[in-house]
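Notes taken during the Thursday session

The instructor put the following on the board and asked us to keep it in front of us for the whole hour. The protein is 5809_t:CDS:1. We were told not to look anything up and to reason only from what is written here. First, the residues (291 in total):
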Amino acid sequence: MKEYEEVFKINNTVKPVWVLFTDGGPDENPRFINNIYQYCCLFKKLDLDYLTIRTNAPGQSAFNPVERAMASLSKKLGEISFSIDTFGNHLDSQGKIINKDLGLRNFRHAGEALCNIWQRDKIFGKPVYCEYVDEESMPFSDVVFETNLGCNNEKANDEYEEPEVGNVEDTEQVLWAWIENHAKMCKYSLDIRKCEVPECCSPKRAPEVATLLEPTNGFLPPVIKGKDNHFLNPIHTVEYLDSAKLAKYDEHCPSISAELYACLVCKKCKKYFPTCAFLLNHKHLAHPKSK
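Then, after some discussion, the predicted structure tokens were revealed:
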């Protein structure tokens, strides 16, 4: 939309670095693997150099300005109801769908009516743009994740066996391999950056950003505490502190004990993952011969 070009584009091109600030809900939280897949697709689709997604710690969503803005949209729905059968009944007596096409027409009608309501008033003086998106819309259907192992900036593991793409499980393995080589996953954040392999990633459009983050392997540094026990700005951390002396990712996270942290680190390569499931994926992919 032209209304957003000033925010998302520069010189008629999508800005190369994006920062997304979300709440901790399951539909946006960067700790959930399905959301990580979608963020990676967005990164590839827009040819971004760097994408960082940051979320609030528990109990902090109330301070998110976006959440406060969205509250006005929810308030408008307090006394509104939409007909479920505008074009006819698509449910049987037990509430099961018997006519999918008719159900989609009814749902579209309600969705478009909702968009019309939300667009009537401004939020913080800014107009609200709302558009109904069809259920079958797949904006990332053309995104392809390469299986090139050379994009790993870290030392390649000799035990790695590249999966053959033949079914859904194999395809997910390929995507997980891409994620490991391009993303840094933490409990409250997800960072994605391009690699240096031209067969995998296009040339960087903001090389100065890559230069700034080079001391921390191309990623924003971990969130750490200063001497006054306040958390430091990651940009200040990478600019003024010695990267070799920084704490590890999530090591200063109050909700992760030292015992739990030790369980989330790969015993073989010392790589940290925010969940046991991610660590298990890593072991299956990077250390298939280890027990």
